[in-house]
């Protein structure tokens, strides 16, 4: 195949041979020249620079650039033959032992001291020494030693900067580098889809040059310019997708739901037992203005745990009811849906008793629709919803089922929206004659760049002020392995809280009974052979017979039948239980003001934001809250540092930034969720905030001039390739 005939769409088997192409496809999901061009190096090594062998983790599949320091041959004890041990170093003082079994005198001659090479394998530990058993390797050309290196082997590493690719054991980095060289030499440079004026105004290099330099950089400066251009493409594609969606939504018609003086909302405000915070009033005004427009609201309401989002949402729902419509709240669990139901009935009082004796003048009805409703109760609830008598409808996924019909659905509120797929939100929106207004809520603080990138099609409101009367939460790490006495003290501290009339949570990462479920994270056994995470069903009886003997202990997890879950929560809320041993089912929405203490077992098995959510369950009343993070992670490990950071601050936005630092960007941008390879590889939501902001500004300008990109067909195709249908759905889901 000629160079002119080869493009980024050319199958790799036509360029690198069938056997290599099959390995690239099977192990790395790379099928075309374009797939390989967008398989960017993970890092770049430079001969003479160290790669810090001391930082390698046991069990990690690695590629290291190192220099042979010495070799030794000794007979094997268990079988015939010799063992070759090669010690390599990286210039930092760290060393790694390479072991080769069998009589391989040629390898000893090849791996002589002074030679540099790339060595790939799985890190193991033998008597305190890091080693690679039988690693794959390629030696780098070093013509100063008087030996001409094989051109075939070293040409892909001719530059000063050596690319190290995400690789597989069967396809090491040097095989990928060799294939990249073939593609660069035979495939015509792609057409640049970025408008020339954007390239010029933002000082961006051309696409063809960027792809060549990122794989075979001529200098650090050129590599920086190449990465900046390719990051721009990723950011621009995402922002164009979101800005176009926002533009289309703004053009859709919706029924205006303006506030009505002297109606249900005014009556509710008059009976509220406390004063709204300034933040609640300001955000409420933003939402009220959105609801009064003839285009559907798409707003994200984010706020710290306990910042009062539910009251803001309820006031919006009442405004819609005042305007003759209905409002539905979608909650991720029956526990949370039932709690919202009880909480709203308490707040509304006579305002929720339409048709009953003693109802207020402007009253409506509140209905709860969940999968566990009995047949008779379900028929009655659905009739109330269909007739419009129920102005406010709360529920779980059961709201989405066929047969749940609304008279006039005007507002959809999605609580903890990250737990719902876009198709679920759309299914509820489809139950309205015209697109309803949509308010999505999250208690997980969102860093600014994530908000701009993942929620760019939504207007964003933030509640940062906690209501009066909320108490501070103190958090401490309990190092159970290093200081077992600290754990004993934790259980005594819990008994003291109960003796003072308060209640406590004990949270475990797993349900137990060796069955996995949605709440079970992370997996029960990991690669390092650590014990399985502690489980609710195993811990509860141990506590009841041991340190918490005599206390009233309840158990709550996602596999309990719905009526049993509700009964347990009611008992805890009513003070009939002292301690609730639970999974993360208590992470969101559970509100028991008398609960003042939480003990999180195996806290290192949870994410930063998740721990912040969990501890928000305590300190919700007038008494201060205490959260103890129990871990066997030792001092100096990344897991321990993460827990220390959580204990050091209650600022959810700081923790969200930390969470983002420790997660792969692909998880944030959805590559993991879509289950498909994504070309969004380089963009860092933390480090590239300015670039993302600039890309959004350019996207807004372009969409205002050309909403469907009809004058930019190459750009439209490029955006579609970078943000495919699955990815676009994920970005909308958030």
From TrEMBL:
Domain Helicase C-terminal: 486-661
Ranges for domain Helicase ATP-binding: 290-463
Keywords from the named record: ATP-binding, DNA damage, DNA repair, DNA-binding, Helicase, Hydrolase, Nucleotide-binding
SMART domains: DEXDc, HELICc
Single Gene Ontology BP annotation: DNA repair
Highest taxon in the source lineage: Bacteria
GO molecular function, one term: hydrolase activity
Pfam families: DEAD, Helicase_C, RecG_dom3_C, RecG_wedge
Protein name (database record): Probable DNA 3'-5' helicase RecG
Taxonomic source organism: Micromonospora maris
